Amino acid sequence: MEQTRTSRAEGVSISGLHKRYGSNHVLKGIDLSVEPGQVVCLIGPSGSGKSTLLRCVNLLEVPNEGSVHVGGFEATDPDVDLDAMRRHVGMVFQHFNLFPQLTVLQNCTVAPVKVLKKSKEEAEETARLNLSRVGLEDLADRYPAQLSGGQQQRVAIARALSMEPGLMLFDEPTSALDPETVGDVLAIMRRLASEGMTMLVVTHEMAFAREVADRVVFMADGVVVEEGPADEVIGNPQHERTQNFLSRVLNPSGVEL
């Protein structure tokens, strides 16, 4: 994809990744790479390990085995400067995670000021630019409770972008939204993809994945079952497990098409 605004897109390389919670083996040797500027969508049933994998990328969850490289950092190196690494990674969660006591603008400036050591004026300029990118420049002085769910998620995206990351992680960003607001969030993600942002996205939005993703990865039971170009995995899946999943997702009523 042509890079028009994102100047420092960074890739991800995951090798032999395992994650256990006691006897629950959630990730079973995941190998996955995302090249700079690529969009990779993770799909699969609940409990397949998609969100855990995403959280392992920036060490919100610590893997038991394997390695994760983000840009020039080995995230899983015990000696890694975790704060420095996380400055390169933006993450958008399912449930927004905004600070309720802060205004929209303050939500977008607190980390750039405290972590990136930007001046308040510089942080606010960047934040207002990113709020404009998500169509919320006029709501900078409101509090999260005064916003709809879709607006809160767009603020969460602006907040992540205000750290000027080279990689964006999206963990089912539309699953908690009303249907009429899903399109607004997906439109912003499409724009980021067109600008060359590296994106790793956990999603159940198959139309979005097929349109935007360079590759789709289908996960089940903690392993990668099938991966490839979006049209191939979604349009012509080869593995029976992928076929069964997509038939349920794309035709949930079970009516023969």
Which sequence of SSEs, written as H and E, runs from N to C? EEEHEEHEHHHEHEHEEHH
**Helical residues, percent:** 25-40%
Which strand order does the major sheet show?
A: 6-7-8-3-9-10
The secondary structure category is alpha/beta
What does this protein look like?
The protein is built from 9 helices and 10 strands. By secondary structure, the chain is an alpha/beta fold. The strands form 2 sheets. Strands 6-7-8-3-9-10 form a 6-stranded mixed β-sheet, sandwiched between helices. It is globular, with a radius of gyration of 18 Å. 45% of the residues are buried. The model is unreliable at 1-7 (pLDDT under 50).
Defining key terms:
alpha/beta; 257 residues; 9 helices; disordered N terminus; four-stranded antiparallel sheet; 10 strands; single chain; six-stranded mixed sheet
Question: What's the arrangement of secondary structure elements?
Answer:
Blueprint: E1 12-21, E2 24-34, E3 39-43, H1 50-57, E4 65-70, E5 73-74, H2 82-86, E6 89-92, H3 104-114, H4 120-133, H5 149-161, E7 167-171, H6 179-194, E8 198-202, H7 206-212, E9 215-220, E10 223-228, H8 230-235, H9 240-250
Helix pairs in contact: 3-4, 3-5, 4-5, 5-6
